[in-house]
Design brief:
Layout: H1 3-15, H2 23-34, H3 36-46, E1 50-51, E2 57-58, H4 65-77, H5 81-95, H6 101-113, H7 118-127, H8 131-137, H9 142-149, E3 162-165, H10 170-182, E4 193-196
Antiparallel strand pairs: 1-2, 3-4
Helix pairs in contact: 1-2, 1-3, 2-3, 3-4, 5-6, 5-7, 7-8
């Protein structure tokens, strides 16, 4: 029996999900990229049903196997990288920075090599309202951060923002507006609010640069 077929059948036994034989090619590719032991460990971990942030049961997703294997491969080559991946996931969710995944991961790698701990990274994400402030709290020079992210190095004139809390009457208006325009609701910090460009959302056109960006 080939290793790829054995992995496919292992997934089927673990999850009860039947996979077409064409998946053997994907398993073979993952073996070549991450090694058989790491892919096997990934199947064992990913194959367990999890739960969403809302407490809903989430079925295992075969496409998470290479993601998990990649994290473990990075951890094996440089201890501490697993925490960097986890913190990047928190940053992506809080700061809406998914388009810069690889850049953010590299910046986290830099601060980790400078001696920043995983605890410090998590605390910075909890305490800071912007991605730039978060990395500044981790000891990174703001100019270095802006160059890496492709942002202007010099400060632009500050834009006025309005802090709106979840229990303010304007909050559901912004939440509905953003869900309609971006597919996501309003972001929220640990104080149950967020900074918006105005008290009320626009009534017509949507400007993505109107001040919701967190950089």
């Amino acid at each position: 029996m080939s290793a790829a077929r054995w992995l496919r059948e292992t997934w089927e036994h673990k999850t009860g999900e039947r996979l077409p034989q064409v998946w053997d090619a994907a398993f073979l590719d993952w073996i070549q990229r991450y090694t058989l032991p790491l892919v096997t460990d990934a199947i064992q971990s990913v194959g367990v049903a999890g739960y969403s942030d809302d407490g809903e049961r989430r079925a295992p997703n075969i496409r998470d196997v290479p993601k998990y294997a990649a994290v473990e491969q990075a951890e094996a080559s440089e201890p501490g990288m697993r925490q960097c991946y986890f913190v990047r996931g928190r940053m992506r969710k809080k700061y809406f920075c998914g388009d810069n995944d690889e850049v953010v991961l590299e910046l986290l790698r830099r601060v980790k090599r400078a001696g920043v701990t995983g605890f410090d990274m998590d605390r910075a994400v909890d305490d800071c309202e912007t991605l730039e402030d978060c990395f500044a709290a981790l000891g990174m020079d703001r100019g270095e951060f802006r160059v890496a992210m492709g942002h202007p190095v010099v400060d632009l004139p500050p834009r006025e923002r309005v802090y709106i809390k979840e229990d303010d009457p304007e909050w559901p208006l912004w939440n509905a507006y953003l869900r309609k325009k971006t597919g996501r609701g309003a972001p929220m910090n640990k104080h149950f609010g967020w900074f918006f460009p105005s008290r009320l959302p626009p009534t017509d056109s949507f400007d993505r640069t109107a001040g919701l960006a967190t950089e």
